[in-house]
Amino acid sequence: MKVSIIIVTFNSWPEVQNCLKSIFEHTSNLEIEVVMVDNASNDRTAAKVKTQFPQIKLIENLKNLGFAAANNLGVKNSSGGFLLFLNPDVELFKDALNQLLQASKNDTSAGIISGLLIDQGGKIQTTYIRNFPTPLKTILFDTKLKVIAELMPGLKRWYYPKINMGLKKQKVDQPAGACMMIRRETFKKIGGFDEQFFLFFEDVDLAYRLKQAGYKNYVLPKVKLKHLGGMSIAKERKSKIRSQFLKSAKQYFKKQKKLRK
């Protein structure tokens, strides 16, 4: 069964180069297609990809459509029965994609399936797997208060679930959005990404809608993925990123309020 790997880029050439190398190095035994959607980068990402990775399907947007819309566009231009949404700052290890694929193939009730992200030093980035946010959780863990909140184990578990490394798979609210495997039919049935989210919370919203529809989201503790973390947005002004985060948070909670009525 073919896997369509969807990658959205925005001024992320060094990262996406390593990402693509890892894909082709570790997926030779699988049927894959890579669809890259470039959101009008100005660092020549698209031109460099054309030269070094001519085998991938490249879509060049004339303007930045946002992360959700670009991913949906990638899906429309793909054909695999399974979709892997992969951030450009993630690198695959041997057998990672195969394990994600098998888990998704074997469970039709699964929504999103992901692995554990690790940093360059091999440390697990546990804060990328979360329980669904509330306004209070967002204030405590996504502002300057995070430094204090994460020192309190009980409070920390309220937002970050404890991962049982001995499990083959663990049900969670929100798997890591940097690497998400999902069946095409499931993604289509749920309506894809909500394009009102330009950046941030589109993955949270997708995970929530899947759970509400009766699907289960999982993390596979034995599957590791190298993650640099926010390299593209790190190149933007902090104030701009913060403003976009808050805008998306407000959109998400407003949508949740409507869904609960």
TrEMBL record:
Instruction: Name the InterPro entries on file.
Output: Glyco_trans_2-like, Nucleotide-diphossugar_trans
Which residues, if any, are the signal sequence? none
Glycosyltransferase 2-like domain: which residues? 4-191
Per its record, how is this protein called by name?
Answer: Glycosyltransferase 2-like domain-containing protein
